[in-house]
Write a structure and sequence with these properties.
This protein is mostly beta strands. The chain has 1 helix and 8 strands; from the N terminus they run H-E-E-E-E-E-E-E-E.
Length: 190
């Protein structure tokens, strides 16, 4: 399925999930919002070796995300289905949405329409206590000329929450587990 068709098919569910996420944050959970993360090398002592972006790429955006990791019940166990999150610029105290993150995984700019699909780089995962792992992802497809139009790599860092529920479940049940993360986007240096 093409990136354009996939984006169109998911638009309704993404907007619904984003509205729920924004509504939850607006309903008094501002204290739980992740803090802004400075550019690479500032404020964070190190990026694990497994998550480092190869030479020849430069950071072009640092966005904070808040949303859910959605799980479905299959054969009595919770299985990851998809993310749904809203992203904003790290330095924006009002957390105005600039992108949506959903199944693919894909990130779609709400300001310029550009998009990037990515896949986890094998072996580029760092487990976190009480949170989904930090990841390095490599772009598999891009669209548009905006912020995501030339993205080559994405780092998911500073994860909080999002782990699958424990215990048994009813076949076909679904649940969203709140999470937050910092996403750093890179593109090739010219």
């Amino acid at each position: 399925m093409s990136l354009t068709k996939r984006s169109a098919l998911m638009a309704g569910s993404i907007v619904t999930a984003a509205a729920a996420v924004i509504g939850t944050a607006a309903a008094g959970q501002a204290a739980e919002r992740p803090s802004a993360l400075p550019p690479a090398g500032v404020g964070r002592t190190t990026i694990p070796a497994a998550l480092r972006v190869p030479d020849g790429n430069k950071q072009v955006a640092v966005l904070q995300a808040r949303g859910v990791q959605t799980y479905t019940c299959a054969n009595g166990a919770w299985v990851f289905l998809e993310p749904a999150a809203t992203l904003w610029k790290s330095h924006d105290p009002q957390h105005r949405a600039v992108a949506l993150h959903s199944k693919g995984p894909v990130w779609i700019s709400t300001t310029d329409g550009s998009a990037v699909n990515a896949a986890a780089v094998p072996g580029a995962s760092v487990p976190q206590e009480h949170a989904v792992p930090e990841l390095l992802l490599k772009a598999t497809a891009t669209r548009g000329n905006g912020i995501f139009g030339k993205v080559s790599y994405v780092q998911r860092l500073d994860t909080k929450g999002g782990l699958a529920p424990t215990g048994s479940c009813a076949q076909g049940a679904q649940t969203g587990v709140p999470y937050s993360a910092t996403y750093r986007f890179y593109e090739p240096t010219d």
